[in-house]
Amino acid sequence: MIVEIIFLSILTLILWSLFKKPSEYPPGPWGIPLFGSIPFNATKVEAQLEDLRKKHGTIFSWRIGPRLFVFLCEPKVIKEAFQSHIFSDRPDFIMFSMLEGEKKFGVAATNGVHWHNNRRFTLRHLRDLGMGKSTIVSAIQHEAEEFVKTMKEQAGIPAPLPKSLIPAIINVLWQMV
Fold first, then answer.
1. 177, burial (CB in 10 Å: exposed 0-12, middle 13-18, buried 19+)
2. Domain coordinates of the chain in residue numbers?
C-alpha cells in the first residue's frame, strides 16, 4: 500500500513538472495537458481574444491544443518583437515535417542561414527572369486591373475569391518564363 502511494506521488510530481506552465511565459489560460484551453464558448474567437487582452494585458499566451500561441496586441510591442532574433524563426508545423521530413528545404519552412541562402538564390533567379523590370510590371498591372474588375462585380456579396485569381497569377508567371 505504501509503495503504491509513493509511486503515485512520484508519478504525479513528474507529470506536474512536465505539464506546468513555465514561469517565463506570458500570462494566459494554460488549460488541460495535451488539450490546452480549447475555445468551447459560443462567442467568437475574436471576442475571447479581446477578453483575454483585457484580463492579461497587451502580451498574453493561449495554449490551444498542444500548441502555445503568444499574442502581441500593441503595434509598438509587435515592432520591437519582430526586430529581435528570438522571434525570427518560423513555427515548426507538423505539415512541413510530413512533407519534407527532418530536413527542411525551400523558403517557407527554413530558418537562419539556409533560409537566407534560399531567399537570395530565389530573388536572383526571379530578377533574371524579369521580376522588377518594366515589362513584368506592366503585365502585373494589367492582370491586377482585370482582377479588380472581377472583384467589383462581386462587391457587397460575401463569397470566396473569384476563380480568376489563379489565371492572373499564372499569366504573370508565364510572362516571366
1. exposed
2. 16-88, 130-176
